[in-house]
Amino acid sequence: MKNIVVESDLISSAIEDIQPLDDDAMELARERQDSLTKPRGSLGRLEELSIQIAGIMGEMPKIDSKAIFTMAGDHGVVDEGVSAYPQEVTGQMVLNFLKGGAAINVLSSEADARSIVVDMGIKSEIEHPELVVNKIGHGTDNMADGAAMSRSDAVKAIESGIEIFNKEHSEKEIDLVGIGDMGIGNTTPSSAIISCFTGKDVEEVTDRGTGIDDEAYRHKIETIEKSIEINKPNSDDPIDVLSKVGGYEIGGMAGVALAAARKNVPVVVDGFISGAAALLAYELQPEIKNYLIASHDSVETGHTATLNHIGVVELVDFDMRLGEGTGAALTMPVIQSACRVLTDMMTFEEARVSDKD
Q1: Which of 191, 192, 223, 195 is nearest to 207 (CA)?
Q2: Based on the number of CB atoms within 10 Å of its own CB, is 16 exposed (0-12), middle (13-18) or buried (19 or more)?
């Protein structure tokens, strides 16, 4: 692990407390999978998932309570014309989440998962009893002109994610958590973060986001390249990268992932932006890789680079690129099913079925 200086006891303790998976629990899960009434390995990734989650939880996995954190924030780089939608859509969509009218509401309801919406840095002010407000600022600064945020605000963003998860987990224990995002323009800082950590050229990890035309797409690439050139983020210092070219909601999602892993809770990563947050968490603590479940392979080209760099493989590929946590919600029932197969199926001995010679 890199010798990273983090000016936060909260973040440092979360990083230090994330442990390797429980080998004994994984071995017991593997032995049970091999004794269930099916040909060994015939359920493929479902078997692998159940063994991974047993290692995370340190026991035979049971998933009763699920939650998806949708973290929202605005971005000053929108001033550069990198998005097809105006900035006020961030706040408007957050209100839509709170009304229950968005895709994440439908899919999280189907998954029987709590939907927790967090204002990490929306430009507008929103008052709603169900909105969690941890506003670091009214949107980041324009990273094409200088740092997106101060280093202290980058630390606060990650700390906020940790604190929010800890609070929700203490009020109602969470067995499976998903991370999602909302923020007009946030594919731009995500591409910058991914380029910094993977070493890929900006063009390789940048796509069209909400659907910009060819001219805007070329300008978006140039804006990211300019931002990296101006700010010179240090890829060996994840906090520096977040502060120079990141977003408040990206830091918040990374904090949720770190806090969840510390509590032995599997983390379901949504798509491109939450992938950038997972990458940030991974750069802070590589051990978190084993706690991550990649829900899907986003259409955004940089997401594949992220998953490859961390070393995880997506569960499905539905050509999705919405964000919000929708991919995480969609795959939560699959993950839960993987655990139920392990715990609820009968073994050959229990069912009195002859095993192969």
Answers
A1: 191
A2: exposed
**Rounded Cα–Cα distance for residues 239 and 255 (Å):** 12
Compute the distance between CA of residue 116 and CA of residue 196 in angstroms, rounded to an integer: 30
Q: Are 10 and 163 in contact (CB under 8 A)?
A: yes
Q: What is the pTM of this model?
A: 0.97
DSSP string covering 108-149, please? HHHTTEEEEEEEEE-SS----TT-EE--SSSS---TTTS-SS
Nearest to 172 by CA among 67, 98, 264: 67
Q: Of the residues 47, 300, 314, 324, which is catalytic?
A: 324
179 DSSP β-pair partners = 69, 269
Do 83 and 22 sit in the same domain of this protein? no
Contacts of residue 154, defined as CB under 8 A and 6 or more positions apart, other chains included, come to 239, 240, 242, 243, 246, 251
The H or E element spanning position 268 is: strand 267-269
> How far is CA 47 from each of CA 42, 64, 141, 342, rounded to the nearest angstrom?
8, 19, 45, 8
What is the DSSP secondary structure assignment for residue 202, as one 8-state letter? G
Alpha carbon dihedral 288, 293, 296, 301, in 10-degree steps, equals: 10
Query: Are 47 and 101 part of one and the same domain?
Result: no
Q: Which of 10, 44, 47, 45 is nearest to 30 (CA)?
A: 47
More confident residue, 4 or 123: 123
Rounded-to-integer distance, Cα 253 and Cα 120, Å: 10
Residues 174 and 314 in one domain: yes
Is 324 an active-site residue?
A: yes
What CATH number does residue 184 fall under?
3.40.50.10210
Phi, psi of 42 (to 5 degrees): -70, -15
Backbone angles phi, psi at 120, to 5 degrees: -90, -20
Record the tokens describing residue 278, joined without a space.
């997972």
The pLDDT tens digits for 161-207 are 999 999 999 999 999 999 999 999 999 999 999 999 999 999 999 99
Whether 3 is covered by a domain: the verdict is no
Please give the residue range of the domain that contains residue 19: 9-61+342-351
Tell whether 24 and 88 lie within a shared domain: no
